[in-house]
Amino acid sequence: MSMSMTSRAPTFADVLTTWTFSPVADVVLLLAAFGYMGLVVRLWRRGERWPPVRIVSWCAALVCLVLVLDSAVAIYAHQLFTAHMVVHLMMITVIPALLVWAQPIRLLHQGGGRHTRGVIDRARLRWPWRALLSARLTVPLYAAVLVLTHLTGFQQAMATHMWIHDAELLLYLVSGYLLLVPLAGEELSVEPPWPYGLRLLVLAVCVGPDTLVGVTLMMSSTVLAPAYAASRSWGPDALTDQNIAGVIMWLGGDGLMMLLMVLVAGLWVRSGNSARSFGPWLDGVRRRATLGEFASGGGDIDDEQAALDAYNARLAALHGHAARPHELENMARGAVAVHGHVGSEPGER
Predict the structure, then answer these.
(1) What is the DSSP letter of 14?
(2) Global pTM?
(3) Which of 171, 247, 293, 343 is least surrounded by CB atoms within 10 angstroms?
């Protein structure tokens, strides 16, 4: 079935049996599948383990790409703004997240030769690599891609020129992947890894563009891409199709970002006490807010005894007198005793 206009609304059987081909992309996907599994086999032969969940993530990403490029979704995405919005969410969030969880950079580093490892190690320390993965680039890029490709005349041009459509899909995949590489998992990307608190903050910021685009399309009374409706003689009118696409972007985009935030929070909890940091600047704010002038004395705010002593000293200063050593000791013992009493189990009292 071609991507030209269809004379009737698709049936469930049409959705299941309608396929097309993308020769260049399909060859790239085939090479990616064999290349990834080849490196996994090389690790196995050396007696090294590669987690099955990463293999599943890689396979899931490739399957999703095949669905986006070759299935009925690819065909009807040229005729329905709503179907095209589903493709957008897949390409900018779902597939990049799966690729990050598959950790292909780490696999290439472990499974490649000494030269390959050296190239990756050197690249990670240089500014182009860091610049491409910096939130100063990736967040504005993500926002610009979403806004400029949805709220301008881009969709009309994309619907009438196949090369623009192909470039758009690649742009979505690249911008989504660059955004999520340091955020969504433990890929071998930046050193040191981003603090989990900062990751959650950046993901929360990225909810904004999804909401802006979704609500604007949902509430709009002007058709931005009439070519969608012109390519078919069935289905909703252009404005209704556009409004529904806005709902998909709003709820789907925000929902996917919230899901990623939950997963990142789970990684934070599993990482233990050593990963409490929010990053140098945010940690400095947290120290000053909690310890006041005593934050300048150094030490780890997450060291319970040190933090308790400094916090008690600040309380004493706020009450108009400097804390004496024996006062600090008594206050600390009292706080620890209360904490231990409250936190103990009934059978331990």
Answers:
(1) H
(2) 0.76
(3) 343
- Which structure tokens are listed for 1? 């079935």
At 346, give phi and psi (nearest 5°).
-55, -35
Which span out of 58-67, 283-292, 305-314 was modeled with the highest average pLDDT?
58-67
- DSSP characters for 95-146? HHHHHHHH-HHHHHHHHS-HHHHHHHHHHHTSHHHHHHT-HHHHHHHHHHHH
Rounded-to-integer distance, Cα 326 and Cα 22, Å: 77
* Selected residue with higher pLDDT from 210 and 300: 210
Structure tokens that stand for 226 in this block = 């009439």
Average pLDDT of 238-250? Answer: 94
Would the pLDDT of 126 be above 80?
yes
H or E element at residue 12: helix 12-17
Q: What is the dihedral of CA 312, 316, 322, 325, to 10 degrees?
A: -40
Residue whose entry in the numeric block shows the structure tokens 């890929």 = 187
Half-sphere exposure of 160 (CA within 13 A, CB side): 10
- Residue 201 tokens read as 């903050």
Give the list of residues 6+ apart from residue 150 with CB closer than 8 angstroms, or none: 213, 216, 217, 224, 249
DSSP letter string, 278-314: --HHHHHHHHHHHHGGGGGG---TTSHHHHHHHHHHH
Q: Which two tokens stand for residue 245?
A: 């696409």
Residue type at 185 in one-letter notation: G
Decide: 172 and 235 in contact? Cβ < 8 Å. no
pLDDT in tens, 210-225: 999 999 999 999 999 8
- Counting beta carbons within 10 angstroms of the beta carbon of residue 287, is it exposed (0 to 12), middle (13 to 18) or buried (19 or more)? buried
Task: For residue 3, give Cα distances in angstroms to 35, 49, 71.
Answer: 31, 44, 11
